Amino acid sequence: MSKEYILAIDNGTQSVRALLFDLRGHIVAKSQVHLEAYFSEQPGWAEHDAEGYWQALCTACQRLWAQSDIPKSAIAGVAVTTQRGTVINLDKQGRPLRPAIVWLDQRRTDQVPPINALWRAAFKLARVSDTIRFFSGEAEANWIKAHQPEIWARTDKYLLLSGYLNYRLCGDFIDSIGSQVGYIPFDYKGLKWAGSFDWKWQGLPVERHMLPELAAPGSIIGEITPAAAAATGIPAGTPLVAAAADKACEVIGAGCIAPHVGCLSYGTTATINTTSKKYVEVTPFIPPYPAAVPGAYSTEVQIFRGYWMVNWFKEQFGHLEKSVASQQGVAPEELFDELVNSVPPGSMGLMLQPYWTPGIKVPGPEAKGAVIGFGDVHTRAHFYRAILEGLAYALREGKERIEQRSGVPITELRVSGGGSQSDAAMQLTADIFGLPTARPHLYETSGLGAAIDAAVGLKLHADFGSAIAAMTRVGRVFEPQPHHRKIYDDLYRRVYRQMYARLQPLYKEIQKITGYPRMH
Questions:
Q1: How far apart are CA 85 and CA 95, in angstroms?
Q2: Dihedral angle at the C-alpha atoms of 270, 272, 278, 284, nearest 10 degrees?
Q3: What is the pLDDT of residues 349-408, one digit of tens each?
Q4: Which among 22, 322, 407, 486 is least surrounded, fewest beta carbons within 10 Å?
Q5: Is 0.70 topped by the overall pTM?
Q6: What angle separates helix 332-341 from helix 423-433, to the nearest 10 degrees?
């Protein structure tokens, strides 16, 4: 059998998946190892055993071979995509010095390196001093240096999760440009490590030798070592190809490479992205992220606690569905569509602002979640539908900001991530945005995006355009329903758009009184 299959490894927040794709974008084999998303020794902390990520990857691969008839010799290459912003400290022997700090972690520090007076004056002039202070306080490297100085002193390499897994697979410290999302000294406009005079080298304790080499998405960055082959079952010598972070991979896996196509991700974090060759800051001084195609950017707006809220609802209020689902042998989320469909569009006036975790600038760090419009008619079902509607309202607001900054109208939507499996969520998204909303032909779009990067890097498809055309397709399309669209448009414009501005002063008072979210 010729080498016509690609192994994509997708290390998300809640599971690691090993996915075998053919060159038409079909999954021919899959295995999944569930993860505890994080452990927390203190409120707001989120950590994960770094070695545990590697062991889960090995287990996922070994299970894949056990259940697939496709010989390993048919695998042309491997690509890794991971959650963003999770960091790992390694010693000189390449061993983790402490648990990984997961992107969900909320710790901050006020003990940050000083930035010289020239930069401070420039930030003050540009009115971004608060944003820079936020960056420095949020940076995990600054917290470790301040609170675990002995760990920082022994840190030889400071890697994102993607860089760590690539190192374990190929033995070299190398990572994709498309994976560089986090509090690191990266030049987002130039798509490279920051220049030597960039303020980030002053604002972070990271030194250049601690960071991996960078390669463009679709570059061959190494090959599977004998040690990695023994642990994973992937044949030694198999090429390892640079992919990108999971959200960037989702975008191309959903077929979104033109700026007029909006890619919604209904994952743990909910996002709206477009792919652009132009550098566009949707929020001033907040850069776009690297795309999964070389030389391009993902213009992105995030809702930090996105479809995480579905899991939150399940744990707090979904005991009945969990019990029934257990008896029927289905996932509880499948039963939640019945809750949504039992409630009219607009949830009888219940409006939810999904800021369960604050933002950076929009919304600001003081933001909190809000629900208004409660009445005696409201039930769990109304509340659940209001969660889905609130997320879609927040992402529609993001769409309008992207359009305003880029000058390109978004005329169609693709939705990926776990939430895209809900017909009810897809329909209300089409109604709230007033646009045709398509589900890609498969659910594993981040893994497919990594496979597309590998297919191009291995010359199995000529270029990204032809690879995306061959490996992605639109599945079911949901058209907006005119009556529902009118209700949602009125609620969005006349109520939702007003909520944050009116509640923001109260959020600030809550913050002052309770100290939560912590001020910076």
A1: 19
A2: -70
A3: 999 999 998 877 788 888 999 999 999 999 999 999 999 999 999 999 999 999 999 999
A4: 407
A5: yes
A6: 50
